[in-house]
Amino acid sequence: MAVDRIRVIIVDRQKEIKIPTGIRMLIRRCCNAVLRMEEFKGSAEVSVTLVDNPYIQDLNKQYRNKDVPTDVLSFPMGKDGKYDINQETGAQILGDIVISMEKVMDQSKIYGHTMQREIAYLVAHGMLHILGYDHENNGMEKVRMREKEEKVMDQLGLPCTLAYVLNRDEK
Questions:
Q1: Which residue, among 95, 120, 94, has the nearest Cα to 42 in the 3D structure?
Q2: 2 versus 33: which is more confidently predicted?
Q3: Phi-psi region for residue 64, left (φ > 0), alpha (ψ -120 to 50) or beta?
Q4: pLDDT tens digits for 85-113?
Q5: In the predicted model, what is the mean pLDDT of the chain?
Q6: Assigned domain for 166 exists
Q7: How many CA atoms lie within 13 Å of 155's alpha carbon, on the beta-carbon side?
Q8: Residue 49: pLDDT above 70?
Q9: Which has the minimum average pLDDT: 9-13, 31-35, 132-136, 154-158?
Q10: What is the mean pLDDT of residues 46-65?
Q11: 165 pLDDT more than 60
Q12: Is residue 162 part of a domain?
């Protein structure tokens, strides 16, 4: 069974990087692809906010006690597959994903791929965190997350250009 309906709220809170045409649709397609892959049932709502490095650094310091900018932060609104419900729409509120557009630009250069692929990868990564995946302890969960992220990238037509994905610094 497919996702009934997903509402993706996208907010651009940064001024440094112009968001190209098609990025909002790519973010929506990526959220949908993750939910389909995970066989999510029912209607869902997720928020994706595009920010600059100082903004995400403040969040990282406040919520993770790490005073550095990072590429993506996820704020799940549910636990063990149970989510708050939007009373107006009946949709399950999955949570918030925050992405640093400055990190997107830097990392797309470092990894030798497009800005579109980097944004999609970070959205997929954030969505998996919202759905309960955690790579902080490394091990098999990290490997499973990476495999799922790459599966979504393939489905979106954004395959990895390297023989194997480079390890990202876990901040």
A1: 94
A2: 33
A3: alpha
A4: 999 989 999 999 999 999 999 999 999 88
A5: 89
A6: no
A7: 19
A8: yes
A9: 132-136
A10: 97
A11: no
A12: no
Q: Which residue has the tokens 């708050």?
A: 84
| Residue corresponding to tokens 């440094």 | 16
- Cβ contacts of residue 22 below 8 Å, gap of 6+? 116
Give the number of C-alpha atoms closer than 13 A to the C-alpha of residue 149, restricted to the C-beta side: 25
130: phi then psi, degrees, rounded to nearest 5 = -60, -35
Domain membership flag for residue 142? yes
Is residue 166's pLDDT more than 50? Answer: no
Residues 129 and 76: beta-carbon distance below 8 Å: yes
Q: How far apart are CA 96 and CA 49, in angstroms?
A: 8
Question: What is the phi/psi pair of residue 44, to 5°?
Answer: -140, 160
- Asked, for residue 85, whether it belongs to a domain, the answer is yes
Give me the torsion for CA of 145, 147, 150, 152, rounded to 10°: -70
Residue type for 115, please?
M
The DSSP letter of residue 57 is H
Domain, as residue range, for 10: 6-155
Show Cβ contacts of residue 86 under 8 Å, excluding neighbours closer than 6 positions.
45, 92, 93
CA distance 152 to 144: 12
Q: Which CATH number is 11's domain given?
A: 3.40.390.30
Q: Dihedral of the CA atoms 86, 50, 52, 108 (nearest 10)?
A: 140
- Per the structure, the count of domains in the chain is 1
